Amino acid sequence: MPVKWVLYWQPNQGSTVSTQILNEAAQCAESISGVKEGRWKATLNYYKPLLRDQSSTHHPDSLPRDFLGISLPDHPAKYYFIIRSQRIVVEADASIQIIMEKLQSYKSKVSLHFDGFQYHLGDFRLRVGRVVPVHSESIRGIVMEVEYLPISSMEKARKVMEEFVEIWHEALSKRSLSGKFVNVELNFGEFGLADNYTPQHTGVQYAIVMAHMIATVQPAVRG
Amino acid sequence: MECVVQGIIETQHVEALEILLQGLCGVQRERLRVHELTLKSVPNLGVVSSEVRLLCDLDQQPEPTWTVKHVGGAMRGAGADQISVMVRTMIESKVSKNALRMFYSLGYKLDHELLKVGFAFHFQRAAQISVSVSSVNKMPKIHAIDEAVPVTPGMQIVVVTAPATPENYGEVAAAVSSFCEFLAPLVHLSKPFISTGVVPTAAAAAASLMSDGGGTTL
């Protein structure tokens, strides 16, 4: 499958993230001849352990504090788990979510939607979307997926991806926004993933991007 | 959900059962070689302690495939008592090969593991029915599937399952029951955990099947 980079919006110190950025990014995509293809949506869940006795000294420190589950629009029949602390990514059928519910050992505590528009620009597909908690409209961040359709090798696509992101930054800089889209450098080998791009690479990127976003982005009071 | 019945048969009569099944199902048998790992949650994890199975289908090409399986409680009550098959919740999900590592990380420990070797038939007969006939083996050392030895030498297990929904389980149960009647001369099938032993007439039925190649309707 085509190589994809997942970037997130990092506001400048003191500024917040808002739907205004999303609108500007959409206009920017159109200004560089992006053709709007419709909407896209992904859903991410944070699972946390359910412990029988919270006060017990038997708190298993070895358990992850949380792990991520994500469903991707390109692979609706699948579901991806990422345990970041252990560098594990697992691909499963979507029915694994029902199994997790039945086990009652971990519970999905926070769910986030990614939704927005996708654009076609020559050999690239671009998706820009907001990050919002389910049952809420307050925007928590903005993500951007850049996909280069002809190549599935991460290494071979690197140069062309870097060039695209540079053009994108240049186009966006004309709009004097307070922040920038950031690409997180990742070692996929740590997760047991090879150079050939798979949906599991996307899952890992979302997990890492979310960790960065939570650590650095202050949500606006009202989105 | 699934409907399930099971029974036991002496290994010496398995070949006859295979001939009978071949005639009844009209499909080719598939080889069965599955490594089944049962995992249990560590003491403090979860609202209740939980169990999940990981099945590794060793015969799949180009490499073995993994499935997570959760078997829930059986349906109870007067309605369940009236039918001769067990109806229970069952959910499966195909997973990548590192699923075992994931469950270990999440606080699940290996409870026991088995290697099931035999054959299976999958066919449509008023429901999507699967019949598996296998010897159950245990490992002397962890994951040592090449050194597996039978749990009950000379005896194999027969399992008949069919997927069902809350709307159609009655019809599926009836389809499974009526299919099981055809196997009655060789193996008695009942709800799991209700052992009914081997069929006393199995030797005679097997001899008859082996002599005419299963061509005669029983």
TrEMBL record, chain A:
<protein>
    <recommendedName>
        <fullName>Mediator of RNA polymerase II transcription subunit 20</fullName>
    </recommendedName>
</protein>
<dbReference type="Pfam" id="PF08612">
    <property type="entry name" value="Med20"/>
</dbReference>
<keyword id="KW-0804">Transcription</keyword>
<dbReference type="InterPro" id="IPR013921">
    <property type="entry name" value="Mediator_Med20"/>
</dbReference>
<comment type="subunit">
    <text>Component of the Mediator complex.</text>
</comment>
<dbReference type="GO" id="GO:0016592">
    <property type="term" value="C:mediator complex"/>
</dbReference>
<comment type="similarity">
    <text>Belongs to the Mediator complex subunit 20 family.</text>
</comment>
<comment type="function">
    <text>Component of the Mediator complex, a coactivator involved in the regulated transcription of nearly all RNA polymerase II-dependent genes. Mediator functions as a bridge to convey information from gene-specific regulatory proteins to the basal RNA polymerase II transcription machinery. Mediator is recruited to promoters by direct interactions with regulatory proteins and serves as a scaffold for the assembly of a functional preinitiation complex with RNA polymerase II and the general transcription factors.</text>
</comment>
<dbReference type="GO" id="GO:0006357">
    <property type="term" value="P:regulation of transcription by RNA polymerase II"/>
</dbReference>
<keyword id="KW-0805">Transcription regulation</keyword>
<keyword id="KW-0010">Activator</keyword>
<keyword id="KW-0539">Nucleus</keyword>
<dbReference type="GO" id="GO:0003713">
    <property type="term" value="F:transcription coactivator activity"/>
</dbReference>
From TrEMBL, chain B:
<dbReference type="GO" id="GO:0003712">
    <property type="term" value="F:transcription coregulator activity"/>
</dbReference>
<dbReference type="GO" id="GO:0070847">
    <property type="term" value="C:core mediator complex"/>
</dbReference>
<dbReference type="InterPro" id="IPR019095">
    <property type="entry name" value="Mediator_Med18"/>
</dbReference>
<dbReference type="GO" id="GO:0006357">
    <property type="term" value="P:regulation of transcription by RNA polymerase II"/>
</dbReference>
<keyword id="KW-0804">Transcription</keyword>
<keyword id="KW-0805">Transcription regulation</keyword>
<comment type="similarity">
    <text>Belongs to the Mediator complex subunit 18 family.</text>
</comment>
<dbReference type="GO" id="GO:0006369">
    <property type="term" value="P:termination of RNA polymerase II transcription"/>
</dbReference>
<protein>
    <submittedName>
        <fullName>Mediator of RNA polymerase II transcription subunit 18</fullName>
    </submittedName>
</protein>
<keyword id="KW-0539">Nucleus</keyword>
<dbReference type="GO" id="GO:0016592">
    <property type="term" value="C:mediator complex"/>
</dbReference>
